[in-house]
Amino acid sequence: MNRSEQFRALHQPGRPLLLPNAWDHASAAALSAHGFPAIGTTSLGVAAAAGLPDATGATRDETLQLALGLARLPALVTVDIEGGFSEDPGEVAALAAELARAGIVGVNIEDGRADESLADPAHQSELIAAIKHAAPELFVNARTDTYWLPGRGQHHVHETLARAEAYLQAGADGVFVPGLQDASAITALVKALHAPLNILFATTGPSRAHLADLGVSRISTGSLLFRAALHSAVELADSIAQDQQPAPAGLPTYAQAQQLAAVYRLSDPVSPAWPRPAPATRRTAPGPRGRG
User: How far apart are CA 47 and CA 44, in angstroms?
Assistant: First the structure.
């Protein structure tokens, strides 16, 4: 089973892949070393780390550069390419082909646009078809923002299903509906779609276990880990300023953090050292045959 096939096999209804999303080399390497079999990128994290806006197509170069480095990790990597960084199918296809050649196993492409509109589904289908033609081995996770864009209500099952079916017909391998938290709507999509359904984890939404019971095949963390890291950094700095006990348990040492960069200086994938919990408490994404 090659790496692309391994990634597909991780998408199991009822035993969803928990996909943590990284924003730079260090965060991805740390998640990989912890034992997560697959890692995604977060467009917000990548954009904010570069001082650029998210969802405007401004981070094509940064996303590609990061992806080429992350492809050296032992973990399977899928990349958020926003709307494809272009409306031209040929340009989107060229990017997908370059990612596939590097060893990336999947891409996430969204139909939300910078002006907070939804792309024409026929044109979005053209972009997806171009990706699959140029890189058929890539797992294309077709994201529809029917529940995500501001100003929209929360009753869009029919529109979501119509867009999802169009994208699957164009060659998409899975469907991603961020912002959807209603259990009945999730169940309806799981039953209607003959493809893996990806839901964005939200602290105010269903738990991982509940999403598994609903038949979801993939759970993404999106920008949550990036935002949590920002919060923790500011909180720790403030605790030092307030002469409080600052050091949380389990912080990596300087040497462990330094080693996270080793993979990017080598031609072959390596597993950098990282603090790991005891086997009884270790949390990794469930995979095929009880993997995790």
Answer: 5
